[in-house]
Specification:
alpha/beta; Aspartate Aminotransferase, domain 1; Aspartate Aminotransferase, domain 2; 2 domains; seven-stranded mixed sheet; three-stranded antiparallel sheet; 13 helices; about 15% strand; globular; binds 4'-deoxy-4'-aminopyridoxal-5'-phosphate; binds glutamic acid
């Protein structure tokens, strides 16, 4: 069978593949410590589950509008206005099958063959492949520890060509955990406006920040940048709803209509009763978000302490998300060699940095329980010391 050429341009998602492998090993009875996928170990808060169950009982089991339940679109717009200072109304919002699907649909709606999309590396691994699937060209801009893995305004300007369509900003970042300061975001916004670009701001980790780091939305910094911004987020991380597949995009009404048309021909609406869970997530008490964030903060502290005691591995404290992005260059191994050996010899699952465009790093997710963190870090320590 001859597959379409586009399939040859992309790779399977390594985060999903390694997480699935670790889960399968557990099922086989192997004692694996998985630091692989960025998936909170907490159950979805009870009031959110109760709202979805109630919606099921009330017969919310039919097709709905492709762009989402009106009540959820309004609730999302309200929360973007009050928490992010983004002046969106319900018609500026589309509910998508996870943040991933929103971004994918956005690429289909915006990117034409040959359009360039600027992606700072290290990047979340799906961005370049989504751009390729839409026929675009990912332009990877390397960052390093000297700028805290942040793209600078000069780098953004230098990467811009007449073919540049879009810049992807992800703060807090997966995989590095860096959070851009308000001044840094403002400086990038200035370049976006000056170069007449569009920016998609992936804010899925916005509620998971530490040590006083504050999240601001680039679109909140003035009319000109607001008009060039598409805001992307979802419920998976902050509300521990990964399997519900609930995310959203917010942008101009024309763009949201276009994305909705694409969605109408691909998935239709997101699972109707699940959307009622999302309404409860936004309208109910936010204590659950803070409780989980506090737990992540504790785990981050322990994991960093343990990591810093391992000779040869280095990692800057992340300001947000739930990952440690660890420099392994002193071991002399590639990230794939390191992660394969770690899983094989010590049954610890980690994601090789090559998946994120940084082969001298590995990523550990600390969205897992403290006992696994202690055990997994013991094993990582032994692994490195026995090299
Ligand atoms: N953006 C980033 C940066 C992510 O890490 C993820 C991880 N899942 C997503 C978007 C998409 O999340 P989901 O599709 O589960 O909402
Ligand atoms: N985004 C998470 C991660 O990076 C979940 C897996 C995925 O969708 O890539 O691990």
């Amino acid at each position: 069978m001859k597959l379409a050429a586009r399939v040859g341009k992309v790779k399977p998602s390594l985060t999903l593949a390694i997480a699935a492998k670790a889960k399968a090993m557990k099922v086989e009875g192997i004692d694996v410590c998985s630091f692989s996928a960025g998936e909170p170990d907490f159950d979805t808060p009870a009031h959110i589950k109760a709202a979805a169950k109630q919606a099921l009982d009330q017969g919310k089991t039919k097709y709905g509008p492709a762009a989402g339940e009106p009540k959820l679109r309004s609730a999302i717009a309200r929360s973007l206005r009050s928490e992010n200072k983004l002046d969106y109304q319900a018609e500026n919002v589309i509910v998508t099958n996870g943040g991933k699907h929103g971004l994918f649909n956005l690429m289909l709606a915006l990117i034409e063959a040959g359009d360039e999309v600027i992606i700072p590396a290290p990047y979340w691994l799906s961005y370049p492949d989504m751009v390729r699937l839409a026929g675009g060209v990912p332009i990877i801009v390397q960052t390093n520890a000297s700028t805290d893995y942040k793209i600078t305004p000069d780098q953004l300007r230098a990467a811009t060509t007449t073919n540049t369509k879009l810049f992807i900003l992800n703060s807090p970042s997966n995989p590095t955990g860096v959070v851009y300061t308000p001044a840094e975001i403002a400086a990038l916004a200035q370049v976006v406006v000056e170069q007449d670009l569009l920016v998609v701001s992936d804010e899925i980790y916005a509620k998971i920040v530490y040590d006083g780091a504050g999240h601001i939305s680039i679109g909140s910094l003035g009319k000109e940048i607001f008009e060039r911004t598409i805001t992307s987020s979802g419920f998976a991380k902050a509300y521990s709803m990964t399997g519900w597949r609930l995310g959203y995009l917010a942008g101009s009404t024309d763009l949201i209509k276009a994305v909705s048309t694409i969605q109408g021909h691909s998935t239709s609406n997101v699972c109707t009763f699940a959307q009622y869970g999302a309404i409860a997530a936004l309208e109910g008490s936010q204590d659950c978000v803070e409780q989980m964030r506090k737990a992540f903060a504790e785990r981050r502290k322990v994991m960093l302490e343990r990591l810093n005691a391992i000779p040869g591995l280095t990692c800057a404290p992340p300001d947000g998300a739930f990952y440690l992005f660890i420099n392994i260059s002193k071991t002399g191994m590639t990230s794939l060699e390191f992660c394969d050996a770690l899983l094989e010899q010590r049954q610890v699952a980690a994601i090789p940095g090559i998946a994120f465009g940084a082969d001298d790093h590995i990523r550990l997710s600390y969205a897992t329980d403290m006992a696994s963190i202690e055990k997994g870090m013991d094993r990582l320590d032994k692994f490195v010391r026995s090299m």
